[in-house]
Amino acid sequence: MPLGQTARSGCNVRSHYDPAAIEELAASLKAEGQIENATGRWNADGQVEIVAGESRRRAQLLRQENGETALTLLVNIRDLTDAEALSISATENMRRRSMTALEECEAMQRLNAAGRSIEEIQAMFGFKTAQPVADRILVAKNLLTATREALDNGQVSLASAMVIARATGAQLQQELLNWAQRGHSAKKLGELLTDGQFLVEHARFNVEKSGLAVRRDLFDAFPPYFEDKNGALQKQLEWANAQAEKARAKGKHQFVAVETGTSLWGSLDSNKKYEYSYTAPTGLIYFVNTSSGKVETSEKYRLKASAKAAAVATGQAAPDAPVRAMPESAFLEAHHYRARALRESLLGHPHLGLILAVHGLIMGGSANGSEGRTGVRLSTEVPVAEPALIPTLLAERLDQLQARVQGIPNRGVDAASTVRVGHLRGGVEADSVKLFERLATWTQTELLDALNTLTAAVTYDWVHYSMAEHPAAPLYSILAAQTGANTALARDFKLTDEWLKRYPRHELIALAEEAGLGRALVEDCSTLKEMRARILEHADALHREGFVPRIVQFPAVQQDRGTQ
């Protein structure tokens, strides 16, 4: 057909074409001619619309723009319905793996709308189950503009888009999109999607015997929850009250109560019946969260004097339940006095300040205030003595520092690992004094060097977040950019079977997509082991390219355009 008598088909499932690939194809057509015919059909305007082979048509058009004339396109012209044209376009592009995730979803939705069943589309695309097809059709139907654009340009994975598509309303979809763009997984998005629902997993009562209806997503995109939330809460309260009666019968606690609210700490701290206590004896409180249905217990509260009589009368408290203690404000004010005196006395002693900084980093791993911590806080949950977290060069520096402060006993670390790990701690008050005296003999340069070594040993702390899946703090991204940590990350990370075993099925699919391997590589696998094996075939090549999964990367630093 003359090139001018051809047109793009409305049944073409693709909308994105790589200009560089079109240029390469144009050069090939010029050198070798058209090897494979396109497929088309006549339209109402007397043109042949190209159902399969649009890239070849665009390559010829590019040659025409560059000055070549009398160009044609070889086309197999057929009588095709829209459904048949869509099937041909989808099949060819799927075979060539040239569709984006969104194009694939829209192709399946259009095929379904044209009369193809989910089972027929499943067979056409070679999936073993109907789940991938149903998920993609849902994405094409329900995903709103902002998320469609984010999926199309690779800002979110297809797995995340499948969860977002289940959210009703633009506001909720936008909120989930924001979480996805901050690096949170599809699993986390599923949890957010059910926020405020009473999840079945939180039920302490017998769910099967309760008679309550449970809503389940067909493909487990989010956890099941009760359709009758109030009915489930009532069952949960009945269970909590029964447990409270058993605890009262044991007589272990001064009082036992059942409370409700949306936050354990917030509800109990604002409740006029209780006050928080750091010392025993205290009571036992069963707390039923009216938002999630989750049951928590606390033994950190005592009764206020004004609430004791009512608690005793209802059988919740024993007659001798304590209700008063030294008020917290007294202890706090004593701390204020000592802090003000010491801080004022230290003014004008800069060398002492430097000594105390190094002293505090060495001694600060202990939670015992008697050892003289100076306010330089180290995590007590993730000790410095974690060998896997200490690089070789840093371990050597810590070895040298250990040798300088030798004689200080180490607590909680075996002798064999002390030097290699550099977990420097004092044991008792006397050891703290000896350490101070030894540091007082060091020069300012020596102290600064020790300070740098110890700071490096404790940088990057994540335990102050409530969840391990929280992304790295922005500060660490800035440090990574300035120190070359991103290069080291790419050098040290490589996909292994041990790493991939952490991934559920939908995250393995997302990983294959993120790595540029394509979802089709693993999506038809029947087992996780087979999926891992296919990805690992590309592990060496990905390592050479410096591939690091998004979950491992330092998050991108958001620069404020209004500042220099």
TrEMBL record:
Name the UniProt record assigns to this protein = Putative chromosome-partitioning protein ParB
The record ties this protein, via SMART domains, to: ParB (SM00470)
InterPro entries named among the record's database cross-references: Chromosome_partition/occlusion, ParB/Sulfiredoxin_sf, ParB_N
Q: Give start and end of each ParB-like N-terminal domain.
A: 2-94
User: Where in the sequence is the signal peptide annotated?
Assistant: none
**What Pfam families does this protein's entry cite?**
ParB_N (PF02195)
GO (cellular component) term, any one = chromosome
Identify the domain of life.
Answer: Bacteria
Any GO BP annotation: chromosome segregation
